[in-house]
Amino acid sequence: MRAVVVHGPGDVRIDERPDPVPGPGEVLMAMEWGGVCGSDVSYFRHGASGTARLVHPLVLGHEVAGRIAALGPGVTGPAEGQPVTVHPAEPVGDEPLPERIAGRTNLHARVRYFGSAAFDPHTDGGFSEYRVVRAHQIRPLPDGVTTEHGALAEPLAVALHAVRRAGALRGRTVLVNGAGPIGSLVVAAARHLGAGTIIAADLAAPQLAVARAMGADETRDLSRGEPLPDDVETVFEASGAPGALGAVLLATARGGTLVQVGNLPGTPAPATLGSLVTREITWIGSYRFVDEIDDALRAMRDGLDVSPVITHRFAIEDAARALAVAADPDHAAGGKVLLRLGPGGSR
């Protein structure tokens, strides 16, 4: 089978690997679509993502969907040919979480994640024609949700988790700073959960157009000097740019809530944070998700349309070009880049 493998910074190849065979408790997926994430881009550009560094070649990809191709011994329930996506996280070990964070499985100290070099050996991702997956990580796609859209269940789950970290949004005014794919999906999640007025801000007009298509009522083009709004009770920071934090904190209402969903650097970076104290802002981190991938699939079943986020599609053999486009901050439309991993991908 073919697989998209990163060997080092700037070195992504389409490697031939043996077709995998599912073991007990596993299923074999025939992959159809994969979404390029910022971590995939980081491994492509730098050979690392956060503190995780490549030691061996790594198959990329954790936003994936396809169909069941075969069942391993002892697996019942899913049927061959069934369209599915994957919950890409698997906690390591059986040590229970402290009571104060019971159930928040995204906060386990050690988690294997599709397409991650956090452990040695690395955890290969799903940018391949086939992938063996533990049966409990499979999530069937609801009727009406294509495998193309199913590949976006994972980033939509990230957005839903962030929105739920903020508490009830019904009727509230919401600001989303950063209108890349995650920011635009935060807009969609906030709209789905009943937010009132949603304002999206970014430096790129094409990304703001995607945010508006996903449900933003207003947009602010920061490249044109348009200011952030004042005194917004609930704010989502989705750019991950430390330089943006000062203005975003000033836009947050006194006593308001700021949810940090954009990944901040793991190294020292200057940021203006004084308003965090003087405005008594509650600043909340949001990391991946727990089981919101199930909520994401239900939301898509119920009409949440993720298609405006998808702006580019590439064949698996063009993976290096797809990663280069996703890595370019000026690429046209600024949305989600998808890879067609197999011939059966439905749109």
A few lines on this structure:
The chain is α/β, with parallel strands linked by helices. The chain folds into two domains: 2-152 and 306-340, Medium-chain alcohol dehydrogenases, catalytic domain (Quinone Oxidoreductase, Chain A, domain 1, Alpha-Beta Complex), CATH 3.90.180; 159-285, 3-Layer(aba) Sandwich (Rossmann fold), CATH 3.40.50.
Structural account:
The protein is an alpha/beta fold and 347 residues long. It folds into two domains: 186 residues, Medium-chain alcohol dehydrogenases, catalytic domain (Quinone Oxidoreductase, Chain A, domain 1); 127 residues, NAD(P)-binding Rossmann-like Domain (Rossmann fold, 3-Layer(aba) Sandwich). It has nine helices and 20 strands. The strands form five sheets. Strands 3, 7, 8, 11, 12, 19 and 20 form a seven-stranded mixed β-sheet that branches. Helix 5 links the parallel strand 14 and strand 15. The radius of gyration is 20 Å and the shape is globular. 46% of the residues are buried. The model has no long low-confidence stretch (mean pLDDT 96).
List keywords for this structure.
zinc ion binding; seven-stranded mixed sheet; six-stranded parallel sheet; ADH-like_C; Quinone Oxidoreductase, Chain A, domain 1; alpha/beta; 347 residues; oxidoreductase; zinc; Rossmann fold; globular; ER; 20 strands; 9 helices
